[in-house]
Each structure stands twice: as C-alpha cells, then as structure tokens.
Amino acid sequence: QVYLVESGGGLVQAGGSLRLSCAASGSIFSIKTMAWYRQAPGKRELVASITSGGPTNYADSVKGRFTFSRDYAANALNLYLQMDNLRPEDTAVYYCYAMTKVVATQREFEYWGQGTQVTVSS
Fold it and tell me: What DSSP line would sit under 11-63, residue for residue?
C-alpha cells in the first residue's frame, strides 16, 4: 500500500511559478512508476512521469517550463513538480500518481493523491 498526500496548489498570475509536493509513504520501495497528471474539464493529461531506471518524460505542453524531481528521506519519498512560466491553460487539478508491481505475481497497483487545484489567471 502506498499513500500519497499532495500540497502546494493555489492561484497564480500568468508567468508566475508554483511548486507542488507529494509525500509518499508506505511501500515506497516497490514503486516502479511515479507521475503527475492533471485534470481539466473534459480532459486528463499526463504531465510528467518517471519509471525506475528510466528518464523523466514530459508532455509537450509543459516541456521547458515544468520540472519533476524526487528525493528519499527517512523511509519516505517526496515528489515535486516545479512549474514555471505558468499559463492559463495550465489551470487544472493536479494529481500525484504511483504504480507498484509485485514481482512474484507481476500484478500492478495504482495509487493516486487527493488532487490539488492550480489556477492560473491571465
């Protein structure tokens, strides 16, 4: 079981910055994929993702503006999404995501944070 708690959303003017945080706890060492998604009315988008041993991937719409990072500390994992040069079209609810895989059965489990609202005004 993995638990994800997000923070850091809010209201910002276009061109501004925000940093989202996601505190992961539980079976963090079984996490294979971590990601940030966003949900706007009628549209869900994968913003950034990283799979164990692989590169970080970004949606074309955020490349060069968003940075996905992570750090491990005291049996906890923190994920961050640094968002710079924000645009009104970045307005959405942002979700932290983790996928674990049980080696013995190859079963995958998905976990989601509660979501945090990001609103960018023009």
Answer: EEETT--EEEEEEEEESGGGEEEEEEEEEETTEEEEEEEEETTS-EEE-TTTT
Residue 65 CB neighbours (<10 A) = 15
Element (H, E) at 68: strand 66-73
CA-based nearest residue to 80, from 68, 66, 92:
68
Residue matched to tokens 């079963």: 107
* Rounded Cα distance, 110 and 28, in Å: 12
Residue with tokens 């719409």: 61
Whole-angstrom distance, CA of residue 1 vs CA of residue 77: 14
Q: 């500390």: which residue's tokens?
A: 73
Six-digit token string for 104: 């013995």
In tens, the pLDDT along 43-102 reads: 999 999 999 888 999 999 999 999 999 998 777 899 999 999 999 999 999 999 999 988
